[in-house]
Amino acid sequence: MRLQVQQNGRTWLAHSYVTVPEPSASERYSATPDEEVALGGAKLSIFFDCADHKLRKPLIVVEGFGGELINVDKLFELINEPDSEGIILKDFLDDESYDLIWVDWSNSNARIQDNAAALQAAIEWINARKHADGSSEPNVMIGASMGGLVGKYCLLHMHNIQGKDAEVERFFTYDSPMKGANFPVGIQLLIRDLLNLSGATASDPNIQAALQLLDGYAATQMLRQKAIIDGNGNLALSSAGFDALQAEMAALSDIKPLSDITRYIALSNGAGNGTAQESIDSDLAMEFSLTLDGVPWGGAPYWQYDVLIQGTAYTARQSTTLLYERTVKAIPVLPFFPISIEESVSYSHPFALGLDVAPGGNSNIALSQIEGALNNAFANVPDQIGYYVNIPIDHFCFVPT
User: Fold this and answer.
1) Of 159, 158, 168, 163, which Cα lies nearest the Cα of 137?
2) The whole model's pTM is what?
3) 30-176 CATH, one of 3.40.50.9100, 3.50.30.50, 3.40.50.1820, 3.30.470.20
C-alpha cells in the first residue's frame, strides 16, 4: 500500500505491506449441509468447498455401524481436532479444495451387500454430478468402521463383477471389521437365554429395540461369534453369517484384490505384538437378579415360595471358557423350608475365545441401551418384588485385530 500526501507545496510519500489472511476453513465449509440428496438406501450430505456449489473434488466419508450414534455432526467434531503438530484436518481439506460428502445409511443394519449397492448408487451419482460440473478429479473415499467393510465390498463388486470404474483413487479404512467384529458373547448368551426363558421379557419393546443391534443382518454378518438357541433348545454360538460373508469377499478378492483397484490405506487400532486390552479388568461382563412373589414353580405351592432368577455373563478373556450361567431358585417364605435349585443353565466354550480383551478398537456400543432395556423390562414383569441389572465393564474389544 502506497500513500502520498501533499500540503503547502510539499509532498510526503509512504508505503507499507498489508497481509490479508485467507479465511479459515470454518468460515468456508458451511455448518450445515449445502445440499442433501436422498438415494433410497442412503442420504448424501454435501459440504462444498466453493460458494458456487459445484462438485469438483469429492471426499466421500462412509458411516459405520449404528449410524444414529455417529453422524455428520460427529464428523465435523473429529476433523476440527488438531493433530500432534497442531494441524486441523478441516483446514487441510479445505486448502486441498475437497468437497466433503457424508454417506448416511437408511438402515445401517441392512445386509452388507445391500448397503454396498446403496454406496454404489451414491458413487455413481457423485461421478455424474462431478462430470456435469466440469471436473475429472478422482474420488477419495474413507470408510469408518463398518463403512470400510461396505466400501471394500462395493469396490470389489463394481470392478470385478460389473466392470465399472468407481473413480476412487484412494480408499482409507479406519478400524474396519474386515475380519469380523465382537460384542461380548457372555452378554449375548444372557439375553438369548432370558428371551428363551420368558415370553414377557421377549415381547418387551425395550428389549426388542436393544436386540436390533445384535440380530440385524449386518451384525449377523460381522459378529465372529453370535449367540443362538440351537435346534435342541440349547444355548450355542454360531459364526455362520460371518463365515458366509468372508467367503464371498474372498472370492471377489481372488478375481482382483482391492490393492489392484485403488490405493488402499488401512488404519487399525490394536497391537502388533498381541497386547490385550489390559484396561478391562472385570471378570464379570453382566449380572442380573429378578425375584418373583408367590409364583408356582416346579410344583411348589405359590404361597410357600418366592422365585429367584439370577444370571451372570463372564468376560471372554484369553483364559476363560465359562461364559454364562443362570439359576432359578425356590426361596421359602417360611424359614424351615429348604432353598432348592429348580433349574440351572450354563455355557462354556470348548476353548478360550479371548475376544472381549483382544487387541483392537474398543467400543461401549449398546451397553447402556441393554442395561436400560433390561431394567425397564424387569420393572414391568408381573409379580416381581425386586431386581437389579449390573454391567461392570464400560467397554470391550469391538474390532479384534
Assistant:
1) 168
2) 0.86
3) 3.40.50.1820
